[in-house]
Amino acid sequence: MEDFGQKTWQSIQALRKKRPLIHHITNMVVMNTTANATLAIGASPVMAHSPDEVEEMVSFAGALVLNIGTPTRELVHSMIKAGQRANQLSIPVVLDPVGVGATSLRTTQALRILEEVKVEVIRGNPAEILSLGGERGSIKGVESFQEATEAVEVAISLAAKLSTTLAVTGKEDFVTNRYRSVWVSNGHPLLKLVTGTGCMATTVVAAFATVDPDPLSAAATALGYFGLAGEKGAQTSDSPGSFQVALFDALYDLTEQEVGKGIRIGEHR
Amino acid sequence: MEDFGQKTWQSIQALRKKRPLIHHITNMVVMNTTANATLAIGASPVMAHSPDEVEEMVSFAGALVLNIGTPTRELVHSMIKAGQRANQLSIPVVLDPVGVGATSLRTTQALRILEEVKVEVIRGNPAEILSLGGERGSIKGVESFQEATEAVEVAISLAAKLSTTLAVTGKEDFVTNRYRSVWVSNGHPLLKLVTGTGCMATTVVAAFATVDPDPLSAAATALGYFGLAGEKGAQTSDSPGSFQVALFDALYDLTEQEVGKGIRIGEHR
Amino acid sequence: MEDFGQKTWQSIQALRKKRPLIHHITNMVVMNTTANATLAIGASPVMAHSPDEVEEMVSFAGALVLNIGTPTRELVHSMIKAGQRANQLSIPVVLDPVGVGATSLRTTQALRILEEVKVEVIRGNPAEILSLGGERGSIKGVESFQEATEAVEVAISLAAKLSTTLAVTGKEDFVTNRYRSVWVSNGHPLLKLVTGTGCMATTVVAAFATVDPDPLSAAATALGYFGLAGEKGAQTSDSPGSFQVALFDALYDLTEQEVGKGIRIGEHR
Fold first, then answer.
1. Nearest Cα to B169, choosing from B194, B141, B190, B197?
2. Interface residues of chain C, partner chain A, Cβ below 8 Å
3. Candidates C50, C53, C252; nearest CB to B193
4. Are strands A143-144 and A139-140 parallel, antiparallel or unpaired?
5. pLDDT digits (tens, 9 = 90+) for A67-104
6. Model-level pTM?
7. Dihedral class, residue B132 (left if φ above 0, else alpha if ψ from -120 to 50, else beta)
């Protein structure tokens, strides 16, 4: 059995050595906090969305994050330009389909991105993944009321259809590439009380994808690391303001021992 | 006499049970912090401004916040589309006319929104409310140098003219629906040292409006609750960085007893 | 020899008395944190970028910040309108050429601003300043891997060519107006682990420029003050989440004694 704790720590060490640039075309709510999450884990963020520069910018990047949290047609146009250039350069693209299923704009734009760009990992909540799979999830705005267990079959079949890795996050996270699936059981309920923690998790997945060639392992260990940082943050705080601060601290200072003992990833059977 | 402390606590309890979606079309400075304020009080935020989705998104919402802090004509177009749909669905709309009076763009766009959309509550500082009432307030950028006492008459006459509730916030807050007016004397000077606390107060007003059918009481208790959270935050911090963290914590963890004893709302005579 | 510690404290005192408005046309990542930095040092922020209001808004301002961190052609159009109006009114303009040299959009737009607007101070990292000077810096996204020592000659010749003050920030900061140059050795490595600290430094430079008529001294003392706040923040925190909170606190509560003893600015020889 793979030692995911060790693999997680190897990825963090590699990130801090390489400091890869993570190019984000993301929503306006989380630009600051995902940039800080990127820095805290040892990578380097850039936010750039003008159609006049995204192809050039992504060429310096180790990975590209596309996040449709505050979508407009212009922004999606930039996402596709950047994504296609990333594909040409074999730079991994990670998609966060925020709120897909809530409005037809989000659904059509997410599907459009998936048609035009080869995406290495999609990270979403259960309702978003169900929506992408053509099922009506009970989405309310950008929140989901399902658990990942309800999206297992849809995720596996989407992974097959799109030849990609799906990461469905909830109380437990389900990650699948069709052939292999794992469960990540790190995390803490306080993460739901801070805006953009899903988007931060996507950022961490993108960063791990720059140093781990296996998207399934990259996504699972990234979600494990992010969830473990949430657990550590919750040890010093039980309210959302101070918890967010402690989360950024933990993303930066989780130790090898904490990671080795704390990462809980297991095979799906 | 109404027990506003009890009413405040009832609203908070109802929010945490219902977790209503608060749709924001707001400025780029406060998107993250107002989303976090929404989560801290128990509601659920969504920020969406594309004209292609705002009507659909608002239909899931318990309330709509329109905030002109970084206005453009396109954004105001989306605000009017969303606001008119909210009106059709009887979803309360709360307007924050940030910086109105400072530039003619802000003044004309705020007045345009008020012509096209039925607004349930307007929350602004004294200079903004004076400007909306056609008086020249001494506004400097987005700050006000008047106190709410100077805007009492204008607020009452605007409430009558627009058939709405006006909430004028300052050292003390004045809330009026023309027929009845109250003063809220919760708050703390440190709130002026954190950007977007006025916008957060507006968000809390919108959330309270989803569970309290009386806009005057909703606005007054929301401002009381927000101000009390500021007072609690200031007990553990006297500098703006740590105060902002403590404010988010307090929005989340004020107790029934603290609210019962701490809310200070009285009739205007 | 000039007492820069005393001068720094005088500027802070003057800011808190005058509370000048600092108009920002800036990037979407740092709008919230630069607004909070502005408030913490005693000034008053406004973020406004619509071409329909920037000329009116800047007329109330003590200084104008132009920051191209998330550039679009429309935004640069607004920057030039605001900058030209500021020039007419003798309001100092400070430019932060974020990521210039990384993409041709950033390079051409920064040069366009410098052609159309008289800029009082340019604050950038070594790679950005080298790029502005026509040299290829090794820029990766928006980060620089050079130290200010490598950009001394280019900075002096740019200061001459543009008749402006250049502030090159790194481990140590180099500030020059061609005729006189100084080194600022305040700062802390944790500042590189929080997004937007360069942008915040630019904001502080703009604020100091409203109360100090000498751009070189304004820029140097502002960078000294900001760096010293970083040092103070690092005394209570060694991880990026809590460090950012401590940084905002320190920007607000550095004492006269701490400033008098802590500012380290010396002549370049």
1. B197
2. 27-30, 32-33, 69-73, 99, 102-106, 140-143, 192-196, 239-242, 244-245
3. C252
4. antiparallel
5. 999 999 999 999 999 999 999 999 999 999 999 999 99
6. 0.97
7. alpha
Q: Which helix (H) or strand (E) holds A260?
A: helix A256-262
- Chain centroid to Cα B175, Å, comes to 11
Residue length, chain B? Answer: 269
User: Exposed (0-12), middle (13-18) or buried (19+): which is B51, by Cβ within 10 Å?
Assistant: middle
Contacts of B28 in chain A (CB under 8 A): 28
Q: Which of B24, B28, B31 is the best mutation test for A, with the most CBs of A within 10 A?
A: B31
Calculate how close chain C gets to B69, using CA atoms only, in Å. Answer: 8
Q: Which residues of C91-128 are buried (b: 16+ CB within 10 A; e: fewer)?
A: bbbbbbbbbbbbbebbbebbeebbeebebbbbbbbbbb
The number of residues making up chain A comes to: 269
Using left for φ > 0, alpha for ψ between -120 and 50, and beta otherwise, residue A234 falls in alpha
Using a CB-CB cut-off of 8 Å, the residues of chain B touching C31 are: 28-29, 70
The answer to whether C239 contacts A252, with C-beta atoms less than 8 Å apart, is yes
| A47 chain-B contacts, CB cut-off 8 A | none
The CATH fold assigned to A4-263 is: UDP-N-acetylmuramoyl-L-alanine:D-glutamate ligase (3.40.1190)
Pick from B23, B11, B48: which is nearest to B215 by CA?
Answer: B11
Assigned CATH class of C4-267? alpha beta
Query: Which chains have 3 or more CB–CB distances shorter than 8 Å to chain B?
Result: A, C
Q: Which of B15, B18, B56, B252 would best serve as a mutation to test chain A binding (most A beta carbons within 10 A)?
A: B252
Amino acid (one-letter) located at C75: L
Residue-level pLDDT, tens digit, chain B, 269 residues: 689 999 999 999 999 999 999 999 999 999 999 999 999 999 999 999 999 999 999 999 999 999 999 999 999 999 999 999 999 999 999 999 999 999 999 999 999 999 999 999 999 999 999 999 988 655 555 566 788 999 999 999 999 999 999 999 999 999 999 999 999 999 999 999 999 999 999 999 999 999 999 999 999 999 999 999 999 999 999 999 999 999 999 999 999 999 999 999 999 98
ipTM over 0.90: yes
